[in-house]
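Following up on my earlier thread - several people asked me to post the actual chain instead of describing it. Fair enough. Here it is, all 761 residues.
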Amino acid sequence: MRLRTFRRDTITRPVFKWASRIIPPISETERDAIEAGTVWWDGELFTGDPDWRKLLAMPPAKLSAEEQDFMRGPVRELCAMVDDWKINWEQRDLPREVWDFLRGKKFFGMIIPKKYGGLGFSNTAHSEVVRTVSSCSVVAGVTVMVPNSLGPSELLMHFGTDEQRDYWLPRLADGREIPCFALTSPDAGSDAAAMTDTGVVEYGEWEGEKVLGVRLNFHKRYITLGPIATVAGIAFKMYDPENHLGRGKKLGITVALLPTSMPGVTHGERHIPQFTHFQNGPLYGEDVFLPLDLILGGKKQIGQGWKMLMTALAAGRGISLPAQSAAAAAICARSSGAYARVRTQFDVPIGMFEGIRKPLADIAANIYQIDAARRLTIAALDEGHRPSVISAIMKFHATERMRDSVGKAMDIHGGKAIIDGPRNYLASQYRSVPIGITVEGANILTRNLMIFGQGAVRSHPYMLKEILALSEQEGEKGLDTFDKMLWRHVGHAFATLWRAFVRGWSGGRIGPAPDGAAMPGYWKQLSRHAAAFALLADLSLLTLGGALKRKEMISARLGDILSELYLLGAVLKRFEAEGRHEEDRPIVDYLMRQGQGRIAAAFAGVLDNLPSRWAAFLVRLVAFPAGVSAPTPSDELTSAVAETLMKDSPQRDRLTPDIYLGEGHAEHPLKDLERALRHVIAVAPLEKRMRDMHVRDLEAARDKGVISEAEFAQLTEAKAAVDRVIAVDAFPMEEISPIATQHRRKKTTRDERSARSDATQ
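Reply from S.P.:
Thanks for posting it. Predicted structure:
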């Protein structure tokens, strides 16, 4: 006891005073964001010594029999009802029969428990439904996604009162109410503290009686389903200038359930997000009076709005946008591989050119990795975790890899993909890319501030406890807590230093890997990088303190390392969980080399720019004595991965399962593409025979006996199928431009006059 008292007073107390100066106190908004959700695998990664056995032991994401029936039935029926071209270019909305179908089949109540009339589906089912629907139409996918995300069904289930759940959830489940969530305003996007929407506690009239409530004034924008919503979950700053509630004048960010039919509420006109016509628009409120009963969660949840939102986002970011990203990436993989096989230049498929194989390989790797991480994350959500840091990783990296896939798919398709029309299966995905990048936390903010910034405090074994101790009002109590955490942290730091040294100096050969796992070398390299990351994170926090908030580039690179550790672990887990398919090994090799290269670049970026040069030198000496190596996939490996997308095989089906390929439509461009691929593969031996005989013309080959009449018909059918795929749309002038039509008419009139004049002469 004396030794501990001596340690506290002579060592810990000066450190406590120093840390109090360099680490600013956490604001209420920051604290709510940090404490939202739960710590899961991100906590393991921050230890520097993750137990990979726990990752492999995580049960895989699975659909129940009922959920599988829903996927085979209503989901496929919905996809067959949707024409994405007509929605965006003619109807500007889902058709009325689609809205009725969504209500009737309870698509808006997937996450609502059965006792309230919902479907009671798992997070896995939620993700899979959104993924499949989004593969046929982004508009339909968003429309299904929003009521099952921020809702406000999710918030009601977690925070609502019994009375609120009993009233609202059945109405939301069967579609009597269409929900939206209103958070963003012109002056407050990512910075919720800047919100100018207000609710003032006062007495007002409600259903003929004088009651205590809030007077709302707000201007919200970018509200998905806002133009048609009948109930909005609305966030505002709540004030009580007369102290009616006895809790002071500033009550904090609060959420209320707002029937949009109330006097003073205006929907506003529609936004058009990138010519993707899901319902989106502003909401306005002027002197709208609500009783306190409509505060979500009742009086006890007043001022808890930001924490509620962050908790809900912790789940939503891990489900909705990763599902949509997986859909877009799967469409890119499926279509680009097929198109690269059927489209020829210089008498060979364009997929044979190495310049095409590199983007094809990246597209194949992206879809494998997005789905690996998506399935791992929703499995964790189904286990009851609400990992806010992991969800931020998923939101950022799923949408960024989707962006990469879409851009490279456009490059491979060339002119085919830039001409709009019903035949273009990529344009809608391309237009919607910035939407996924921007919503639920803009990606720039997510990467630079949230992933490592929130993770360092939330997921670190000791950091949050130390910061809270520094914020403790009772100094001696805070000092006692800080003393305990500080010395545990010191012990952790020395253990991390030793692990980083052993694993670094052995080149990653010494380090833990799961017993019996395939590819143990990759697991050991992840263990090496995890130890180096934990060491670098601790030294960055120690030397920068609160200034790390302003060092966004360093924070972003540390977040990149953390993210890659999670994503690559998910890839290795998927390989194990799916039975170690040997044909998938090249994709895993490609991803691991690619990911290790990204990790190396991030480490080098931090070490080159860390202001404390002694800390950077120490990490290099301990963890990277031979330098930070950055492996890259070989050309041979790249070609092998690209080949996986150009074959009509079970592997290709496993990479792109359950996406909609137009099977329910009489005509659909993806159906045409799949048909052309099968034809081209079938006639490949015949074409080779013709090349060997130096005959290119089909009729000449038939006349010379190189091919039979039946083979001639087969080749002719294949050519027609390919021609149908390569064709692009064109429209009558009068449908495209009335002005151009007028010019054409004037020109025709002038030409006719000139012709008459010439005839007269």
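The mean pLDDT is 92. That should answer part of your original question.
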